[in-house]
Amino acid sequence: MDEYSKALSFYKKALEIRQQTLPSNHPDLATSYNNIGSVYYNMGDYSKTLSYLKRALDIWQRALPPTHPNIKTVKKNIEIVKDKL
């Protein structure tokens, strides 16, 4: 198993734990989605990257102030991924 596959497995397990213990709009869930999206980006799977980054953005927009750096960063990353599709 390569390093990206290992990372993906660990991040998905973390997401599963967070989904079981946190409310659906908790910012930590968005962090998990963002991390998984980053791994997919590094693996070259841009459609999955986009899906996970959009989930992260949706939660962060509901849970954080609009000027929060996480929101700005993930929006920029979404645009980068869209350019690759």
From TrEMBL:
The UniProt entry, under Pfam families, shows: TPR_12
Q: Which SMART domains match?
A: TPR (SM00028)
UniProt cross-references to InterPro entries, sorted A to Z: TPR-like_helical_dom_sf, TPR_rpt
Record key words, sorted: Repeat, TPR repeat
Outline the TPR repeats, range by range. Answer: 30-63
Does Nucleus show up as a keyword for this record? no
Q: Which residues form the signal peptide?
A: none
Give the protein name, as stated in the record: Tetratricopeptide repeat protein
Species of origin: Adineta steineri
